[in-house]
Batch of 2 targets.
Target 1
Amino acid sequence: QVQLVESGGGVVQPGGSLRLSCAAAGFTFSGYGMHWVRQAPGKGLEWVAATAYDGIKQFYADSVKGRFTISRDNSKKTLFLQMSSLRPEDTAVYFCAKGSRAVALDYWGQGTLVTVSS
Amino acid sequence: DIVMTQTPLSLSVTPGQPASISCKSSQSLLHSDGKTYLYWFVQKPGQSPQLLIYEVSTRFSGVPDRFSGTESGTDFTLKISRVEAEDVGVYYCMQSIQLPYTFGPGTKLEIK
């Protein structure tokens, strides 16, 4: 079955950097686009970034553009989110999700918490 | 960006009774390929979101048939024919016709 396991969250100071990972299993990772979606404490869902199946194209929410970079290693079936210039408002649980044009965000990981605080 | 709104933001339902959640998009979600890219997700307490319905009315794998989705233009409705205790959670609609994908604010379903 499809499994997505995020890691890399933690506490970081404003202006700092963090790299999230999402390990995939149970499907042909190289055949699907992948997404990051975040949820601030007690709030709703916010789409953050996406990468095409081959990693060539990336897309970002305006709120993170220029600060976050999504990438993937298809040989290791792993998705990444490099976050820099972090702000307190980036504090959230970050979920990775599998997607395609046919069915977006069909499977989600359990999430990893990022806290930006001094 | 496409704005998604939901009503109500919360509802309390007796088990066995129906429930209905409305979602409205600020723009048409009908693509030139003939599909309408409206999704419903549920986030149960302490869990990650899970897909319920895609393309307005197609139930995802394993989703009970008491869940159904309908549309009328830019207005969409998720219906639960008979609410069960396990249905408690926050329900979100989402559009994927264009990036950025945008979600509604969520509707919290509680059981009486």
Target 2
Amino acid sequence: GQNIDQPTEMTATEGAIVQINCTYQTSGFNGLFWYQQHAGEAPTFLSYNVLDGLEEKGRFSSFLSRSKGYSYLLLKELQMKDSASYLCAVMDSNYQLIWGAGTKLIIKP
Amino acid sequence: GAVVSQHPSWVICKSGTSVKIECRSLDFQATTMFWYRQFPKQSLMLMATSNEGSKATYEQGVEKDKFLINHASLTLSTLTVTSAHPEDSSFYICSARDSWPGETRPLHFGNGTRLTVT
């Protein structure tokens, strides 16, 4: 079966760095997406990785290792507004998105 | 950037009535839109894929006669929850892919509709 694993919840301190991991087992791979979802709101697109390596976008970076079925989202200089759920999603060989359950990130002052 | 507009943002209805939710792509054409449902503290669950000019493709376990989808134009898809019951209360979110080339385009989401059935 297809499976996406990510931690349920993480806590970090304002100004610090946090890494949210995502491991996947899917039938085929056509890219991995990270989305941010604030409570009660729809998800917003953060990043897309299809090749191995690190993609940097401001305070957010996303890393992919296809051979290990592994990705992480790195958030630097954490701000209180970064408190949200972070969803990992993989596009399989049929171009269907398989969603992880999301990681709730709690930022403490 | 690509904008998806969803309306209404929230709706309260009585059990047995029907509710229509609209999803519009404002600055791009979307041949395919997706409808998701999200229960509290759970991940997104794909309900159906809406294809312009043809029938929607429903995921296993989703009743097509209860959740009617119409994708009449390249910028509008509607989801109608027919004969709503309290267990249909949920957060419904639509999405569409923007105009990157190829299939691996990111999804852009509407703001979601919170449905409460009393």
